[in-house]
């Protein structure tokens, strides 16, 4: 190959490498915004996605935080598994609950289905909820959605990662709904979290993914919703608060926040759930107990002579099965019963 052809080949390779790098950094074409909090103390609010939705900061501003080798945020991934991008910094929202990032409304924020992802570390527990990301403005009925961790005054849902959304902009209306994951977010622990909302799937359209980065344990939850899509709010998109005088602000660290306008598959997440193929818990009702709660939705079928669902008793067969499950703290009340024959199976 001549020198000129070699140079052209090298240029083509460099262009292809640049294209791959840009794609990896911003994620998918469905990315609304991706805020990595890298760069210097001024540019860390920049959007790494294609919409250039750079953020503003509250008057009492969040600060940039260098991820350490030990301590708070040290387990945040570096590099990010889904992109290979280096991760050296995060945003510190302190403990005052009045620090947040914001972006004025734009057409791209009008989502039907959507996914929110982030790395988080919660430094305090409060009586009210702590918001991770939102487009939710109570004034003028401009509520749409927020992803949060509920506080100590929230009853049975205390400390759970949860989605609050409304299809009509109202509060307590027919279109208003709280969806609890059942997954607890503890203080002073590094996590990767994600929530996807599929407007077209009312049975299993809300999926929560949580990885405890300090233990490596994943927890997932699949929930239904009442139908519809989030209200087209004119409120600000915010990270760490809602658009309201009572901010319900986040405390601690937030990093690598990505908003997508589709319900991403688990393997498309920044910290993709690649290691679990299927997880069949045999919980739920007698119809739904064959559901896969893992990332691939590999719901099982049964043989013509079918296994049955079995309620674990307080004594006798199965009574010593762990409840809750030790690795993920999920309750375990049911099992599959194959009877005494050899002709029953799942497939």
Care to describe what's here?
By secondary structure, the protein is mainly beta. It contains one helix and 17 strands. The strands form three sheets. Strands 1, 3, 4, 6, 11, 12, 13 and 15 form an eight-stranded antiparallel sheet that branches. Strands 2-5-14-7-8-9-10 form a seven-stranded antiparallel sheet, with no helix packed on it. Strands 16-17 form a two-stranded antiparallel sheet.
Give the arrangement of secondary structure elements.
Blueprint: H1 3-26, E1 31-35, E2 56-57, E3 63-66, E4 89-92, E5 101-103, E6 114-122, E7 130-137, E8 142-149, E9 160-166, E10 176-184, E11 190-197, E12 206-212, E13 218-223, E14 237-239, E15 252-260, E16 308-311, E17 334-337
Antiparallel strand pairs: 1-15, 2-5, 3-4, 4-15, 5-14, 6-11, 6-15, 7-8, 7-14, 8-9, 9-10, 11-12, 12-13, 16-17
């Amino acid at each position: 190959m001549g020198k000129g052809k070699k140079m052209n080949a090298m240029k083509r390779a460099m262009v292809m490498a640049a294209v791959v790098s840009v794609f990896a950094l911003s994620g998918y074409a469905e990315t609304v915004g991706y805020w990595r909090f890298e760069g210097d103390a001024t540019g860390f609010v920049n959007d790494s996605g294609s919409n250039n939705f750079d953020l503003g900061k509250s008057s009492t501003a969040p600060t940039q935080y260098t991820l350490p080798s030990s301590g708070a945020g040290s387990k945040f991934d570096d590099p990010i598994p889904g992109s290979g991008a280096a991760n050296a910094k995060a945003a510190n929202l302190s403990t005052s609950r009045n620090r947040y990032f914001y972006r004025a409304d734009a057409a791209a924020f009008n989502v039907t289905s959507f996914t929110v992802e982030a790395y988080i570390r919660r430094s305090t527990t409060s009586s009210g909820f702590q918001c991770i990301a939102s487009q939710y403005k109570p004034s003028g009925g401009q509520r749409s959605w927020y992803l949060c961790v509920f506080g100590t005054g929230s009853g049975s849902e205390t400390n759970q990662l949860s989605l609050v959304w409304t299809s009509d902009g109202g509060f307590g209306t027919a279109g208003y709904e709280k969806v609890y994951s059942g997954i607890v977010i503890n203080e002073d622990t590094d996590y990767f979290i994600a929530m996807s909302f599929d407007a077209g799937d009312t049975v299993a359209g809300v999926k929560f993914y949580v990885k405890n980065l300090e233990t490596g344990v994943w927890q997932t939850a699949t929930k239904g919703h009442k139908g519809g899509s989030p209200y087209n709010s004119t409120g600000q998109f915010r990270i760490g608060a809602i658009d309201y005088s009572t901010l319900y602000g986040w405390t601690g660290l937030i990093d690598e926040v990505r908003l997508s306008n589709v319900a991403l598959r688990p393997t498309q997440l920044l910290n993709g759930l690649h290691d679990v193929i299927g997880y069949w818990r045999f919980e739920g009702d007698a119809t739904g107990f064959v559901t896969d709660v893992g990332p691939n939705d590999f719901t099982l079928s049964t043989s013509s002579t079918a296994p049955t669902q079995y309620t674990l008793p307080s004594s006798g067969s199965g009574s010593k099965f762990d409840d809750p499950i030790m690795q993920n703290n999920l309750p375990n009340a049911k099992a599959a019963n194959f009877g005494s024959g050899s002709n029953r199976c799942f497939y």
